[in-house]
Amino acid sequence: xxxxxxxxxxxxxxxxxxxxxxxxxxxxxxxxxxxxxxxxxxxxxxxxxxxxxxxxxxxxxxxxxxxxxxxxxxxxxxxxxxxxxxxxxxxxxxxxxxxxxxxxxxxxxxxxxxxxxxxxxxxxxxxxxxxxxxxxxxxxxxxxxxxxxxxxxxxxxxxxxxxxxxxxxxxxxxxxxxxxxxxxxxxxxxxxxxxxxxxxxxxxxxxxxxxxxxxxxxxxxx
Length: 222
Ligand code: URA
Fold this sequence. Notes:
The protein is of the alpha/beta class. It has helices at 2-8, 35-46, 82-87, 94-105, 131-148, 158-165, 177-180, 198-203, 208-221, and strands spanning 65-67, 73-77, 114-117, 152-156, 184-187, 190-195. A six-stranded mixed β-sheet has the order 1-3-2-4-6-5, with helices on both faces. Strand 5 and strand 6 form a beta hairpin. It is globular. The relative contact order is 0.20. Uracil (URA) binds at residues 77-81, 84, 90-91, 93, 95-96, 117, 199.
């Protein structure tokens, strides 16, 4: 049980999630066919992408996504970092190792969930992705979500949250992540729970109990 786990971690009473706020957005209906092969088609469509300037700024390879093409739970981060750029897989560096532990904490494995980023190429010096890069790459994440059809998305960190909820949550870009937590939103009809980015949790140990509460909210939704 999430609440008793919280207590056993010495975090005090379990935080009470606020009421679910459904946000409606147009649903992108998935195409028919095998989700795994459909993801392969999306990856092939991306090709050796030159649609934005990131291909000229030192990216080694495109980091598409990993996991079960029919996963119930999908994790969405910002963009690949140095380790991901080398290995071609999202969340394999230090933040990724924490994400793996987070996934295991809810009795799942990396291969049972789907993990992707909003941006598929590493921004130089891990700078924030820029609007033109999001505009080019965002549709691929949308297609990945439409194929995987997860029951829930965990949006990790301010950038992923803003990208997924832009247009459906008023002034999302000016709201701190801490204020957005605790509610369930929607991205093209898929429920979204907001949580901290694992890289932030590595630096801010005292926020881990909040991340745990977010996971509990996600699990309750599932
Ligand atoms: N941070 C992200 O947002 N994504 C990764 O894949 C790695 C680090």
